[in-house]
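Quick log. Single chain, no ligands specified.
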Amino acid sequence: MSNNLAGLGRIFRYIRENGGIRATISKLYRMDDVRTGRLVGTDKYGNKYYEDPSYFYSRNRWVEYAPHFHLDYDGSQIPAEWFGWMHYKTDLPPNRDGNRPHYKWMQDHSQNLSGTKDAYYPYSTTKEKIEAWDPKKAKSG
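-> predicted structure:
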């Protein structure tokens, strides 16, 4: 009985800390998980990074992607400086680590666009060895 009450109390805490029932259901729909933790920081793209040491190691740091990604989020949308913190390469998040290099030649982060309409396709001048089947050609022949 006390385990059931503890579980129910945890559910109410999750709902309260995630902004109410509607926000919790929305987060569950988007992320397939509902967690609570300490907000560690936010990157310039709007992703929020959390930590809760009560979870297992390697599950105690997570990212909630910015709402404008909706359901089209993936790991390549995490910038390099936060990637290091997420994967335990450092315990200092980028917003508290003053020793990170910032050079003018460093490029800004960009996500992997493979599989999207903006993906890179190389231009080729060679004739293709395999020709796609065209049903209109097959019927006319």
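The two ends are 77 Å apart (CA to CA).
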